[in-house]
Every structure is written in structure tokens, then in C-alpha cells.
């Protein structure tokens, strides 16, 4: 009867059994490790193994993290080699049939990873209605054209065609840049931008294609969300030798804005 009682007691009382498994080693120094494999069987019988001893070791901890070359994995698969920035050592290889020279590892929306040719991030701007700007205007003004950029560093190519209504052959210099939502109310350049585009515009060219503006501006969106950048124009400088009045028509309405991401600065 007493054996039946003990059996019933075992069935109703939950038991927690903790066991560590060591393969080719009995020296498991961390209680967080469930499985420890020492392929080279070179770990000491006591004390903490050295980095040279753990370089090929494999562990699985209580969180299900797998460490290769490390006994303290911090992610689901943590691989540490003996490489250094000066002398790197490759840590893994995936040969699934997709591998091709110069391909990069990418993923689909479900997180499934595969090799693919590198395609840089690209964005195309939206050209707005434009704005008339007199060649005496010395501030910036919103042209109503914009481009939206995800986090990262981008190079934005600005290409515009601008007409002038002047009656005398003359030119003026105009500058172009980008504002964001925080600087747009004051028509100021965004601190995310580096550089501006300046171009000489002919005052009296009033037929297409007019004067051409071509240049590039670097934009670094260091936020965690996609941001809008608005094309500003202005800061006009007239030809001081023989200044003539003119207005540049619908600035920002004709042309294109294209951006290419050159560095993804976000971390997962």
C-alpha cells in the first residue's frame, strides 16, 4: 500500500529535473548551459575554458540559444570565430543553390533568407505644381515637389527645366535644397541634408526646355521612419553687371527627383 501511496504522490506533485549534458567534457561552468560539446576535447577539467579552447565548442542554453565558438550566445544562433578586423575568419556558409558570386543574403516578408543580386534602394519623387520665383527673391520657398525616403543615407539627383519671362538676355543664379517637416514652416534646409544645388538660369528663355538644373544632394534620414523631403528653391543672385528683372515660372514642376540609398544606417 505504501508503494501505491508513493506512486500517487509522484503523479500529483510536479517534479523539476535539471540536467546538464556534456559531450567530451564534464566541466560545464555555467548553470545556464543545457548542452556543451567540446569537439577537440581540449577543455580543462576545472575552471573556465580559455578562448582558444572554446573556439570550436558548441553550446545550447536555457533560452534555446545556440553558440558556436562562444559559451554565452546572445541570439538564437551566435557564431564567433578567431577572426579580427585585421585578420577576419569566415563564420558560416550557405550553399542552397541560390549562391552566386557577389550575391547578398536577403529575406522575404516571412524572414526566409536566400541569396540574391544586390539591388540598391531607390525612390522617385513627386513633382508638384511649382512656384513662380522672381530673380530678386533672396529666401527659400517650397516648390511643392517632394521625395520620401526610408531611414538610411541617400544620394538624391535633382533634374529640372525652368523657364523665365525676361525680355533681355541675362542670367541669374538660383539654389535648390530640401526641407523636412520640422524646417518647412520656416523654409529652411533640413539638417539631414548635405550640400545644395546651384545653377545659372537664363532670364529670357521662355520656351521648352528652358534652362537646365542638374545636381545631387546627400540626405541622411537617421530616424526610424520614412520621411518626406520638400524641394526648396530660391536664394537668387542676379547678374550684377547688367541686372534685368525676370520671373522664373513654375519652378519645380518640370523635371525629376531620384534617390539611391548608399548606406542603410538602421539596425534591427
Shape: rod-shaped
Specify the biggest β-sheet. Answer: 7 strands, antiparallel
Helix content: under 10%
Strand content: 35-45%
Order of helices and strands: HEEHEEEEEEEEEEEEEEEE
Q: What is the average per-residue confidence, as pLDDT, rounded to a whole number?
A: 86
**Regarding quaternary structure, how should these chains be classified?**
single chain
Topology:
Elements: H1 2-12, E1 21-23, E2 33-37, H2 51-54, E3 58-61, E4 66-68, E5 77-79, E6 104-107, E7 113-116, E8 122-124, E9 131-134, E10 140-149, E11 152-164, E12 171-179, E13 193-194, E14 197-202, E15 211-221, E16 227-238, E17 247-251, E18 255-263
Parallel strand pairs: 1-2, 4-5
Antiparallel strand pairs: 2-3, 3-4, 6-7, 8-18, 9-17, 10-16, 11-15, 11-17, 11-18, 12-14, 12-16, 13-15
Walk me through this protein's architecture.
With 268 residues, the protein is mainly beta. 6% of the residues lie in helices and 41% in strands. It has 2 helices and 18 strands. It has helices at 2-12, 51-54; strands at 21-23, 33-37, 58-61, 66-68, 77-79, 104-107, 113-116, 122-124, 131-134, 140-149, 152-164, 171-179, 193-194, 197-202, 211-221, 227-238, 247-251, 255-263. Strands 8, 9, 11, 13, 15, 17 and 18 form a 7-stranded antiparallel sheet that branches. A 5-stranded mixed sheet has the order 1-2-3-4-5, with no helix packed on it. The model has no long low-confidence stretch (mean pLDDT 86).
